[in-house]
Amino acid sequence: MNDLDFLRTPEGRALLDEVRGTDPAQELAVATRLRRTHPAPLVSAALGQARLRQRAVAKFGAADAGRMFFTPNGVEQSTRASVAAYRAERLHGLGVRSVADLCCGIGGDAIALARAGIRVLAVDRSPLTCEAARANADALGLADLIEVREADVTEVDTAPYDAVFVDPARRGGRGRIFDPEAYSPPLSWAVAAARTASRAAALKVAPGIPHEAVPADAEAEWISDGGDVKEAVLWFGAGAAPGAVRATLLPGPRTLPGTGLPDPEARTPGRYLYEPDGAVVRAHLVAEVAAQVGGGLLDATIAYVTADELLPTPYATAYEITDRMPFNVKKLKALLRERGVGTLTVKKRGSAVEPEELRKKVRPQGPNAATVFLTRVAGAPTMLIGHPAR
Questions:
Q1: Which terminus in the chain has less CB density within 10 A, N or C?
Q2: What is the pTM of this model?
């Protein structure tokens, strides 16, 4: 009996309940106690699953993570629930009622699709992964809407389904894979599968995908959640605007469409600095943000926008700049001491200095807070000091 089989039995579920929330520092003591009444491999399986569930809370929330079943790769590679829900709602809004979810993993996207009222065929070639996906569909009461099939996705007939969703594996034995043609399956295969979808298709790709790798008939969308860039999606078919780009920020959603603006001019620093959201930067839409706030770039090669006025936008965080100086650690340390700055946030673009390294050197002390930007202005290494605009 494998771990997941056992953990789904009444004894396994009882053991999972007993180890729920175990502090890592107490794990050895808990394991020693439980091994007196349970086989050691089963205790290890329950404690391992408890650790995975704790890690999964950040992606799935405590309520779902506490009922779901995970593999180490499944926790690492699953889509964050908020992102999966956004994508599922977009598909539902396009009239999609059935989806072939290829490379489904442990079922995170299938769960979001099913909760949106969409019938799902979830396909993966890993027996263990498929077992986890089935267990999760059952645990969350979605088994009637999710069919899990162990198969090679390249051999699955997707014709009976309204839409195709593909999430190719982007990690290998040596870590992350950056070449889209080295995905498993390759991006070219996923694109071909998307083009056969009867209504719509969505391909999840790494947010660092080169813009030149995006097919001309696809719409590219970069998505961030809480300020962290999570993924890019290539959309085909209904609702997709071929060649268009957009940045979507969660929660919200707030979507900034590309308008084809040229890169803004670099200018002298103004009173305010705007830090565009990472999805905006990845989508190459900094010019759209600059137009919204009436600003320009600090440097032609840096994605920081500067302006004289405060014009709030959801697509960038605004800071009021109080000081500007050439990069000099001693002068920064003296300024922070004079201002009584003990809480220092260090941000950088276009600088080789590591934030933690700088923090150690300046040793901030005091009751006040400040933000320092390590960047370039007109090509010169520069420090801009300020605070979030109010």
A1: C
A2: 0.91
